Amino acid sequence: MDISPTEVIETQARRTLGRRKDRRTWILWALRSSAPLWAVVLAFLIGAVVLEIAGIDPLRAYGAMLDGAVGSWAAVGLTLQKSVPLILSGLGVAFAYRCTLFNIGAEGQLYIGALVGTVLALYVPGLPAWLHIPLCLLGGFVGGAIWGGLPGYLRARRGLSEIIMTILLNYVAFWFTSFLVHGPIQEPAGYYPQTEPVPDSAVLPIFWDAGRLHIGFLIALAIAALVHIVLFRTALGFQIRAVGHNPKVAQHAGISPVRNMIIAMLVSGGLAGMAGIVEILGVQRRLSDFFSPGYGYDAIAVALLGNANPLGVVIAAIFFGALRAGSNMMQRSVAVPAAVAGFIQGITVLFVVIAGAIPQVHVHWGLRKERHG
Amino acid sequence: MATLLRMEDICKHFGEVVANDHVDFEVEEGEIHALLGENGAGKTTLMNILYGLYRPDHGRIWLRGRPVDISSPRVAISLGIGMIHQHFMLVPVFTVAENVLLGMPAPREPLLTLKQVAERVQHLSQQYGLMVDPYARVEDLAVGERQRVEILKALYRQADLLILDEPTAVLTPGEVEKLFTVLRNLTRQGKSVVFISHKLDEVMAISDRITVLRDGRVVQTVARKDTDKAALARMMVGREVVFRISRPETCRGEDVVLRVEGLTVQRRGERPALADINFCVRAGEIFAIAGVDGNGQRELAAVISGLEKPTFGRVEIEGQDVTALGPRGLVRLGVARIPEDRHGLGLVMGFTVGENLVLDCFDQSPFCRLGWLNFRAIWRRAMTLCQEYDIRPQQPDFPARLLSGGNQQKLILARELSRQPRFVLAVQPTRGLDVGASEFVYRNLLEQRQRGAGILLISTELDEVLMLADRIAVIHGGRIMDILERDEADLERLGLLMAGVAAVQRRAVAVAPEE
User: Fold this and answer.
1) Which end of chain B is more exposed for a tag (fewer CB within 10 A), N or C?
2) Residues forming CATH 3.40.50.300 domain(s) in chain B
3) Which chain A residue is nearest to residue B240, measuring alpha carbons?
4) Which CATH superfamily is domain B3-237 in?
5) By three-state DSSP, how is residue B510 classified?
6) What's the per-residue H, E or C state across B261-304?
């Protein structure tokens, strides 16, 4: 078709652009691009059925949830506060995902990041805040990067499954942290499995009093922007995306899949590690062994729901933060089990994954959209 | 003769692509009916519908005068339809008889008694002149024999209508002749054959009637005796086809651009995929490696394009040892590589046209400064190359995966050839392309030759090799059988070399008188 006369192309365009197929294309496109929204709506509908069966009025329950998530400035602040570790670790999972790597180990990287950062916060005394905070954040990043880079190296060099390795390293990280807070770095009082509180010079200051929101939120947003820039505006991001689309093509063109996979996992783990230390310095103020309620696992869902896109990740993380904040309220005022919130999260992710089965179509705004020949 | 099959008004589309558009197709008993068309004309789709692999959007099928609903290959087989795919569906470690039985109830289910099966296979094999040993293991058989096992499978299932999808693509010219003899035997004894092909010579040699498809529509059905190659080509392409492309006389220089010495690729415990390959490519010549698919071409291409390291031997480009240089170094040296597999090696399908055009140079000025991509420069390069190489649509942000095959290949040519390479590796550069796009590729390769580049063309298409090459090496079983000047090469001689016997025989003849 390449050099056939224009008439042929035009006839074909007319034929393929029949009105019926035109409409079908648009419907598919609209369905696919709004999939996360529908997934959420469907999940809530199914959640309502479950609540109904449990004998709870879904409207009341969801009302309480809404109240807890956005009902007041304090609620909004809580939602955003809970979204901070989700944004950072979600960005981490998304970054690896852009290089076709499935980092299931954000939880472990988050613990190691929190651990390294906390140690720096506690045992490097006498620094001013403007130096101490960045030092701790950097430590968190490095800790997470090591925890993600290790499986990344083995995956890139030796082809071992990064999925299995990162899952298993979660346990190692968690129990290692647990061991340390039960002994070596436990608070001198020695009563709870936790460290001393971090000094004031390492605490992330509150910038919004009404919502009691710490600057970790702003840091997370800035890092989301940075990740976007790295992925889409730099040569590094170009390589990582090329490897992500097809490592063989990348290699053939002279882009090293090994190098880029390792970098992707280092950055991925680093971001999850930062999530950990930001949560400690902003909210917990000390390291304890169960401080994360599974942020690193939710990060996988956040990255998927956000389509591995930095802006999408931020939105998805805030949504999941709202679910967490809201479900607390739902639990307190309507006595709904916390499991329901988890259930809705799970169903949402499931639907997003299912939506991936909708055929992909390309709509060219206002122009032709047949196969160009 | 009675009509065996009638397909009426068949329509099938995939997404926005119309594969079959109101196609009517008839096969009579005892005829060889060729389905001719370019790649993507809808031949295979039509036959996959007949074999129950696809459901048509519209249309009806009659078999022996009765309407049938073919919902799956199982139904097709029970109706006496057999399909021999381009890629054989055989278990290599099984014997012929076991492969034939595969997917069918054994004669004494649940016991596996192969004796009866083998006897029947033997009988069928003799009846139709297939010459296949039922107890031979498939992995020990040559490609042509494997194909005959596939035919046996269909016959064992009592097929009256055999569909062969591009059956000659994997055969040497000698094996093609053998296949044609078998097909004639089959039709003489009442079987019908649908022969899918895009090669005019073969279609003219074997078929009784020919149906030409273009863009998913039937152009015409003609009897072979009422037509000729030129007329068929016109129908296939929709315009006059010039078979000759002007090829300026030799402009071979003295400089050796590529030298390959003692190249051997052998995985542990396997026969060598490449054994002691030696040749060199000079500036201003097209050096072709001809041969049947799967005789070491893939390995040779992988080594020369820097993806694999050879077990022994070395590769030199313009005097520099590049054996261990890797793809990055080759790109830096300005080597152009047109890979066989556009989707698997050539293009990042998820990237745009523009991104694909800088895949090899995104990190160099002016496309990149201090790690930052300069999109304006990338866009400019894309626009320039889109115009120069006539890539349609001329939109740098158009997704590569939505381009037609021809335009995808142009994209690769644009990227690789625009850096004025001294050496070009082109592997099957026209595979899957229609005539127009193929011509474009040929013109570009010849231009590079004029410019003084050395070109290594690895191709299984003899027409292409004979049209373009200055020298031709024939590869068989991982060895170079012989290197011929273009003037000494003809189809027969190449065919014998490709079959891997000629050189040995010649040597034997040369030695014989002494004994």
Assistant:
1) C
2) 3-237, 251-335+435-515
3) A4
4) P-loop containing nucleotide triphosphate hydrolases (3.40.50.300)
5) helix
6) EEEEECCCCCCCCEEEEEEEEECCCEEEEECCCCCCHHHHHHHH
Asked if the Cβ–Cβ distance from A359 to B393 is below 8 Å, we say no
Indicate the average pLDDT of chain A: 86
Of all residues in chain B, the percent with pLDDT exceeding 90 is 53
At which residue do the structure tokens 């931020």 appear? A314
The upper half-sphere exposure of residue B53, i.e. CA atoms within 13 Å in the direction of its Cβ, equals: 10
Secondary element (H or E) of residue A204: none
Q: What is the pLDDT of residues A214-259, one digit of tens each?
A: 999 999 999 999 999 999 999 999 999 999 999 999 999 999 999 9
- B353 chain-A contacts, CB cut-off 8 A: none
State whether B15 and A8 contact (CB < 8 Å): no
Tell me the pLDDT of chain B averaged across its residues.
87
Return the H-helix or E-strand segment holding B33. strand B32-36
What topology does CATH give the domain B251-335+435-515?
Answer: Rossmann fold (3.40.50)
When CB atoms are compared, the residue of A233, A248, A255 closest to B345 is A248
ipTM of the complex: 0.80
Picking from B12, B343, B359, B397 by the largest number of A CB atoms within 10 A of its own CB, the best residue to mutate is: B359
CA distance A304 to A106: 14
Report residue B211 CA to chain centroid gap.
21
How are beta strands B66-68 and B58-63 bridged, if at all? antiparallel
The answer to whether A117 and A140 are in contact (CB under 8 A) is yes
- pLDDT over threshold 80, residue A364: no
**Does residue A132 contact residue A126 with C-beta atoms inside 8 Å?**
no
**Domains of chain A from N-terminus onward:** 72-336 (1.10.3470)
Residues B407, A2: C-beta atoms closer than 8 Å: yes
